[in-house]
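Run log, item B.
One chain of 270 residues. Sequence copied directly from the ordering sheet:
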Amino acid sequence: MQYTQWGRLIYDKIHGWLEIAVKMLPNAVVAAVVLFLFVMLARLFKKLVYKLVFKLSDTPAISGLSASVAYLFMCFVGLFIALDVLQLDKTVSSLLAGAGIIGLALGFAFQDLTANFISGIFITFRKPFEVGHQIETNGFTGDVENIQLRSTTLRTLDGLHVIIPNKDIFQKPIINHSLTPERRVTLTFNAPITNEQTGQLQDNLQGSLKNLEHIAGHRPIEVLYSGIDGANIKITVTCWVNNDDVNNYDLALHGIITQVTNTLKERKLI
């Protein structure tokens, strides 16, 4: 008798489930069609986003990440609509709440990593520098060899590879030497000259400096008397250097000091 009751109970349960399944069959078919259509739409949307982002950023990593996020977003939208068609409203609410809690927890757990990724995305779109540019940031100067979502790799002037987190680059000043075609060099020194020598010394210094390598020829070379230091006159030499290479500044400064020293020696001022 007991086995018969158990069998009857199991039969009623299965029968009830089958009735519910039959009633929900049209909705299930519609939900499956909706989910299928959204998956197909997500694939097209993924390709479109990849092409659009690649056109703007010219970076495969950013384009691939954006395309994957767009694909998952469309798939989740399709899943939520399909669950709504199946009248599983509570399931949709639970999924949304769970996704929010998980996202918040991951955001706190990986906030540094997230900050580097977001900074990498901003750097990619704003393009303060590109691969091959010579930049100066965070105390390092070198050529940009690689820009990734998390970090940027520099090759310094002494051949070292430096990997800098994008967050540090984004939050601190950047000097891009490749975007600065010319750079000013200023040299100040003292010389014991008389009034009769002032004009002639200016001409001599300007003439000796204008043909130096790396000096921008279309820019004027200024030789100014900027002060008096006892029996000496303070002289300031200003000229512009072609900044297509970061080493040009040091080379030009070396050449200026050499020429100024030679000129002063010729006039027996030192």
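Observations after the first pass:
- Strands lie at 134-137, 140-147, 151-156, 161-165, 175-176, 182-191, 222-229, 232-242.
- The chain has a mean pLDDT of 81.
Flagged for discussion on Thursday.
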